[in-house]
Design brief:
Low-confidence stretches: 155-165
Structural class: mainly alpha
InterPro entries: Trp_biosyn_TM_oprn/chp
Keywords: Membrane, Transmembrane, Transmembrane helix
Number of strands: 3
Protein name: Trp biosynthesis associated, transmembrane protein, Oprn/Chp
Largest sheet: 3 strands, antiparallel
């Protein structure tokens, strides 16, 4: 992976990871029935509700994509560490919610009914696991950037005009081709002095 991890690929991968984290955190992760004054109701929590830090970590991954597009060797290592830590944090948070969504659902039930109690079985969706996988991929990207020895050197000719021809020094007067007008004037001057202008030709 490190052999083909160019600047553009790394920035794209980080941006995609951040987008997936944000998208999956907005989806429903778990739901359960609750008892309310008007009968049974149902509460649903999204990833952002159950793990509020996940959207923030997704934004960090998106910001890292921009940083990687401009990064030198030192900044690349800093961004790699941030990505690895953010990805691992997402995995821990997402897996924790999916294994036990009860606290998040009871908190949602308390907001809905005033009583933090559930009245039925808890159901989960696959989105939390998708988010965990995206977090794992984000962490793997950070590790790959840390172990990569590929150079992302910048071009020193960035601001040079493309296709500009190198300047040529002016030719010495003796080597410069003479125009017909200049030769005619020299011939006239020679005739005025009584000389034959064709003698040297």
């Amino acid at each position: 992976m490190t052999a083909v991890l160019s600047r553009g690929r790394a920035a794209l991968a980080s941006g995609l990871a951040g987008g997936v984290l944000l998208a999956t955190s907005a989806t429903p992760w778990a739901s359960a029935a609750v008892a309310s004054l008007v009968g049974d109701d149902r509460v649903t929590v999204s990833g952002a509700d159950a793990a509020p830090a996940v959207p923030a970590l997704g934004i960090i991954a998106l910001a890292s994509a921009l940083a990687l597009a401009l990064a030198g060797p030192v900044l690349r290592r800093v961004v790699a560490i941030v990505l690895a830590a953010a990805g691992l944090a997402v995995v821990v948070l997402a897996v924790g919610v999916m294994r036990d969504p009860g606290p998040a659902l009871r908190s949602a039930a308390a907001e809905l009914t005033g009583v933090p109690e559930l009245a039925g079985a808890v159901t989960t969706t696959a989105w939390g696991w998708v988010c965990a996988v995206a977090g794992l991929a984000t962490a793997a990207l950070g590790v790959a950037l840390l172990s990569s020895r590929r150079s992302w050197g910048t071009s020193s000719r960035r601001y040079e005009r493309a296709g500009a021809a190198p300047s040529t020094p002016p030719q010495p007067e003796a080597d410069r081709p003479r125009s017909d007008r200049e030769e005619a004037m020299d011939d006239w001057d020679a005739l005025s002095r009584g000389e034959d202008p064709t003698a040297d030709r």
